[in-house]
Amino acid sequence: MSMNPPAEPGDELWQVDTPALIVDLDAFERNLDLMADMVTQAGVKLRPHAKMHKSPWVALQQIERGAIGACCQKVSEAEVMVAGGVADVLVSNQVVGAPKLAKLAKLNQQASVRVCIDHIDAVSEISAAAEAERVVIDTLVEIDVGAGRCGVQPGQAALELARAIAADPHLSFGGLQAYHGSAQHRRTPQERKEAIDSAIAGTTETVNLLAENGLECAIVGGAGTGTFELEAASGVYNELQCGSYAFMDADYAKNKGADGGPFDTFEHALFVRAAVMSRPSERSAVVDAGHKACAIDSGLPVPWAMAGAEMTGMSDEHGVIDITTVNEKPERGDAVLLIPGHCDPTVNLHDWYVGVRGLHTPQARVEHVWPVAARGALF
After folding, report:
1. Which domain holds residue 278?
2. Is 97 exposed, middle or buried, given 0-12, 13-18 or 19+ CB atoms closer than 10 A?
3. What is the CATH number of the domain that holds 325?
4. pLDDT 10s digits, 282-323
5. Contact yes or no for 266/31 (Cβ under 8 A)
6. Apex CA 173: angle with CA 239 and CA 99, to 5°?
7. CB of 256 within 8 A of CB of 215?
8. Overall pTM > 0.70
9. Which helix (H) or strand (E) holds 91?
10. Distance of alpha carbon 21 from alpha carbon 351, whole angstroms
11. Are 340 and 360 found together in one domain?
């Protein structure tokens, strides 16, 4: 059961209950506009990843700015996107099991919902589901370009799978999925470039081999917020699957930019608003946001605009902030903003987004409240 929202449109910021998932609408829209401009200039397409935001509302904002659709990692996420009006979805992942494949096939009666494979058995499994629903499913071969996760090796193994897809009457060969996930958070530009150069080489080899055998790749997809400019300039990738750029998080801020400074191409637009519930000493403030409000797999959240403050620990419902060197120390009842370490799993902890206009101004006011519609869509 979804909880009541922590705010209503028109509320002032002080009226937003805590902990709440806040979107700085001004920064969010600037992020979307900037990425839209950059992919247009690069001559590639943008298919942003919805696993990050889990919201058709966000996906449609991206599509309004030229994105061609959305990526999902799970069929249940795709169901939510299609129900919310997204007509072109790529499940950029492996789908195993008859119940999931039946749902995938049924979705193709309403929208274009593509899928990836990395095993020959998947051809007959997806084909059977497609035949049962009288649809043809666009299917991509996933290649492992360095992430060490799913995917066949570039080259001959990918060709064999592509041939099997193309020969099946209930499938169509859609191209390649070539995403290097771990490269996104390699801290220096050179480390990221080395990883993506290798990915580009394997992807180019495979695209060329497929073309030599009469198989053209309509989609060559991959890239993330940390490396998208490299894939965009590669001459082989034609769809970018960036997700976190829309919100950003504290972990991405640890990446270094080309000048050696912070990776600040995009702005922090996602925050958890928390309230100080205790001031046990002059050195610490305890807030009402813990593990159940902020994911910590990529580190503890970072207090916003509180120079010298550092989150030092969290438990289920508490977060402890060291305020020893903070000049203007927050008092009991004051609200603070926290930048999540990792936006994706943090979003999945909340039922609602609270979109605030002018977040960092005295005029801050709630403009939108919308559900995290695909929260818990794990299957």
Report:
1. 13-21+264-371
2. exposed
3. 2.40.37.20
4. 999 999 999 999 999 999 999 999 999 999 999 999 999 999
5. yes
6. 95
7. no
8. yes
9. strand 88-94
10. 9
11. yes
